[in-house]
Design the sequence.
């Protein structure tokens, strides 16, 4: 049973192992993390990862954070995250909880850093979740939302073509600015071990015809195991 208001995430929900390949392939140069570090980082701070999925980022945050809390609505993913962080949980370093972005199971003013990557916060419509972030954030806290930038990069073009109904970059820019958030554009990449892994990930990230068109274009351009990939890091201090 999923909590009320859960937004489906078909890629990781239905293709968990393939999504793990994507997590490992994305941003091998740690450019997104470098932006977050430049803006204040998470060392010795209480961190919340909203929509933590299988907990891939929880262990990374835990290396330097004072504490890390992952919130995830999907029970199977939450169980994987719990197993992944079991040793850290025993030391109360990491906690994994059931919840949604718009109903966080945390006290008021309890978090220093909020991280959400491709989870819930996709522009207009996410206002209830933004209100929850404000509730749990301590004075001086910083929140970071990582989302696709469909205005540039190879993957951005694939994404724009595959999801024309998704809010345009201009709409998202206007929305986030109106909410008091700022944008840090990051050009990074996917770097897979094999072409088969890249193809599998493209097929869970894009609708069927769009995925096959993207893969055909990739092959015509020489193929390979890398794709340039642009994201936006939206951020705000409280």
Sequence:
């Amino acid at each position: 049973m999923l909590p009320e208001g859960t937004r489906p995430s078909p890629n990781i929900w239905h293709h968990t192992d393939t999504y793990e390949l994507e997590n490992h392939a994305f941003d091998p140069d740690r450019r997104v993390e470098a932006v977050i570090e430049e803006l204040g980082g998470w060392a010795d701070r209480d961190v919340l990862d909203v929509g933590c999925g299988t907990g891939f980022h929880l262990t990374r945050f835990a290396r330097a954070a004072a504490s890390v809390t992952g919130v995830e609505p999907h029970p199977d993913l939450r169980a994987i995250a719990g197993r992944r962080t079991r040793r850290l949980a025993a030391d109360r370093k990491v906690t994994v909880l059931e919840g949604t972005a718009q109903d966080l199971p945390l006290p008021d003013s309890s978090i220093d850093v909020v991280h959400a990557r491709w989870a819930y916060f996709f522009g207009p419509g996410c206002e209830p979740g933004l209100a929850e972030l404000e509730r749990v954030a301590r004075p001086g806290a910083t929140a970071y939302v990582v989302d696709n930038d469909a205005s540039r990069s190879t993957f951005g073009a694939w994404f724009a073509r595959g999801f024309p109904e998704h809010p345009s970059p201009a709409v998202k820019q206007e929305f986030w600015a109106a909410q008091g958030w700022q944008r840090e554009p990051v050009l990074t990449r996917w770097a897979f071990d094999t072409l088969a892994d890249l193809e599998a990930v493209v097929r869970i990230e894009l609708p069927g015809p769009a995925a096959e068109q993207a893969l055909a274009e990739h092959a015509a351009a020489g193929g390979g195991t890398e794709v340039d990939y642009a994201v936006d890091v939206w951020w705000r201090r409280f």
Remarks:
- The chain has eleven helices and seven strands.
- The chain has a mean pLDDT of 96.
- The radius of gyration is 17 Å.
